[in-house]
Amino acid sequence: MNLIENAKAQAAQVITAAYQSAAAAGVLPQAELPAIVVSIPKDTKNGDFASSFAMQCAKPLRMAPRKIAEAIVENISLDGTYFESISIAGPGFLNFVLGQKWYADAVALVAEMGDNYGRLTAEKPEKIMIEFVSANPTGPMHMGNARGGVLGDCLAEVLSWAGHDVTREFYINDAGNQVDKFAKSVEGRYRQIIFGEDAVDFDESWYQGGDIKELAAQLYEMHGKSLLDMDDAERTETIVTYGLKQNIAGIQRDLGRYKINYDVWFHESTLHETGFVADTVELLRKAGVVYEQDGAVWLRSTDFGCDKDDVLQRANGFYTYFAADIAYHRNKFAERGFDRVINIWGADHHGHVKRLQSALDAIGLDGSNRLEIILMQLVRMMQNGEVVRMSKRTGKSLTLSDLLDEMPVDAARFFFNSRAADTHLEFDMDLAIRQDSENPLYYVQYAHARICSMLRKLAEEGVAIPDSADLTVLTEGEEHALIKAVSQLPEEIAQAAVARDPSRLNKYAVALSAQFHRFYNACRIKDAEPAVRDARIVLSRAVRQTIENVLKILGVEAPEHM
């Protein structure tokens, strides 16, 4: 339930009824009217909600907006609504002031819904897959994966709370050129162990990381020199089977540590093994959007407005990554029945978006509307005012595992989700671990812990902690402001879902915490008159529950002690 939307709907209903009454009395002419817009004004000193109805109707009614507004106010009835008064401002704005019932109901709703406060029922629920991270299993995860992981995980949770059926998926690229390159890289290091580094050239195009050396050392410990006795195909298969298994397990381990748990781990290789890629290319052929040239099969991407055509099958018979990607998304829509697919990609993949959507359009899957790509901008890690690229522990490129060795996982998650995906992120590692109010996560968690501490102390002093109270006694400005902030959670979830921007909840959590601290400093609780004290306790518990629910969506702990 969303009491803000309920209030807006009530305002629209009473305006409609007032117009109909005025029109029936001949005060206003009959006309086809536009949809009534009710919003929360930036400055609420004149009212909690406002409508520009009179200005919207000036043309169809052929009257001055102020006259229309006066007629509405004269004919309006607020009986049985959340509003206690209505007034006119400026050229004809209708301003509504909330009554105590709305504030009381807003607090009571949190207690009633508890852990589910903020959950919505979607008007048109969808079966949605979010695919994110999908790092190549040829090495450790970098900072782009760290940001994409949190953005994807938090967006999945937001969409779930907004009322959709959400699946988290990791696409394992265990086929194609990068796997061949991976096998050559490990074999090269394996041969260097046996024959010496100077005796074996290591191609500069191969993977250079220390993880490759570690896998080679493990294979040597397991097999000695016996891999050299195998034919090329058997040796490659042995290296790839072992190496990818180890790397995928490492990715799963690191993501689990990062509090990210996938519903599905999908292997690209299965698309090739089952012939699904070949079948997909054949569908594109039948759709008339491919051609052959120099022995290769090409997609006419230029027909879709792209700058060049794309190879689907090379002259040697191997299918490209792009062909597999089209097949993979066909599998999502046609085989598994997702209504919508959202992928989180790095911004460097922007040229791939239109190509993929158009290929899906060509085979009747409406990729332009059903496939959404969120392009994520770069992350710059900062420490002591300087850019950090290397791990202190290893002296090599900073990985997700290195980062989690240096800071709490909650800090990493909160900070990586602090900006919308389409904005560059400067991650201040020093700020993320600070234990003071300058750190936004600490500030939010402290608000939760502060409420828990207050309730414990009151109980220790013999105050009975009520589950309910007469909330109509909450009439102070800071109380009303705090209740409004609490009531905003369902709307924030709804807007975050629409905008595909879970960072809204970071900002909301900070704003709610700030409002609580202002309330706590302005409104005495322990020494207040019992009825007011109990109402303020119930309000504080509602704030605690709201903060806890927001942090749950973000995958962050809500501590009771700090």
Q: In whole angstroms, how far apart are the ends?
A: 32 Å
What's the arrangement of strands in the largest beta sheet? Answer: 7-6-5-11-12
* DSSP summary: helix tally: 21
Query: How confident overall, as mean pLDDT?
Result: 95
Strand content: 5-15%
Q: What is the 3D form?
A: flat
The profile of the biggest β sheet is: 5 strands, parallel
Low-confidence stretches: none
- Helical amount among residues, as a percent range? 40-55%
Class inferred from helices and paired strands: alpha/beta
Total DSSP E strands: 15
- Evaluate the radius of gyration: 30 Å
List the helices and strands and how they pair.
Elements: H1 3-24, E1 38-39, E2 49-51, H2 53-61, H3 65-75, E3 83-89, E4 93-98, H4 100-113, E5 127-131, H5 143-161, E6 165-172, H6 177-195, H7 210-223, H8 232-257, E7 264-267, H9 268-273, H10 276-286, E8 290-293, E9 296-299, E10 310-313, H11 321-335, E11 340-346, H12 350-362, H13 367-370, E12 371-376, E13 379-383, E14 386-387, H14 400-406, H15 409-416, E15 425-428, H16 429-432, H17 440-460, H18 477-487, H19 489-499, H20 503-522, H21 530-554
Parallel strand pairs: 5-6, 5-11, 6-7, 11-12, 13-15
Antiparallel strand pairs: 1-2, 2-4, 3-4, 8-9, 9-10, 13-14
Helix pairs in contact: 1-3, 2-3, 4-18, 4-21, 5-15, 5-19, 6-7, 6-8, 10-11, 17-20, 17-21, 18-20, 18-21, 19-20, 20-21
